[in-house]
Amino acid sequence: MVKAVSHPLFARVYPKINAYMEAHGSIEHRRELLAGVRGRVVEIGAGTGANFRHYPAEVEQVIAVEPEPRLRALAERAAGDAAVPVEVRPGRAERLPVEDGSVDVAVVSLVLCTIEDVRGALTEAARVLRPTGELRFYEHVRSQNARAFRWQQLLNPLWRRLGGGCHLTRDTERAIAEAGFAVEKVRHFDFRPEGRPNPASPSIIGIARPPTAGAR
Ligand SMILES: C[S@@+](CC[C@H](N)C(=O)[O-])C[C@H]1O[C@@H](n2cnc3c(N)ncnc32)[C@H](O)[C@@H]1O
Prior knowledge:
Elements: H1 8-34, E1 39-44, E2 59-65, H2 69-81, E3 86-89, E4 103-109, H3 118-128, E5 129-140, H4 146-162, H5 172-178, E6 182-190, E7 202-209
Parallel strand pairs: 1-2, 1-4, 2-3, 4-5
Antiparallel strand pairs: 5-7, 6-7
The structure holds S-adenosylmethionine.
S-adenosylmethionine (SAM) binds next to helix 1.
């Protein structure tokens, strides 16, 4: 049985947070995340569908999986405005409603911070990817600075409660590697909207190759 994901308060606030972040630079991050993507794509935890308009024309189809009902309704609306075909499906990262080895690209953006079972989600991403496929990721992560990391640890319980389960302290690049993906490219940066750092500033954007069948 797949557990429901319901964060009504967060789902109301997130579109506003996202609009603020996009007005201050995250649009560029979304473009960087999706540059060169082609073929059949699964987007995991698509939220409001903020990525949809940035998919290149070479994309044949996006299957956008989103468990939260209010966010999914917004994603369905965004799908109608996208330049490439987008199908929004209910479901969770830990059990994707997608066939084995059927997609060229799996996209996660600002979502591995929130998913309860990160390893399970990455195993699922590996399951649905073709052997030649790739994982594209854009995530906020734990700080490499010891002092900033201690602040993230202190704030994490409150942040999780207000942020729909979002963690500040995850080492997501490491989690991707530990799940058997080969990280091919990664850019670390601090995202500082309006020049101001915040606890979720440390970020990564990158590409990883799925584990070979024997290594899964
Ligand atoms: C911060 S939002 C990011 C949304 C979107 N990916 C973006 O880039 O704006 C986190 C998203 O993760 C989704 N989520 C939470 N738990 C999930 C799970 N187990 N499987 C899939 N998505 C999940 C939430 O519903 C929400 O849409």
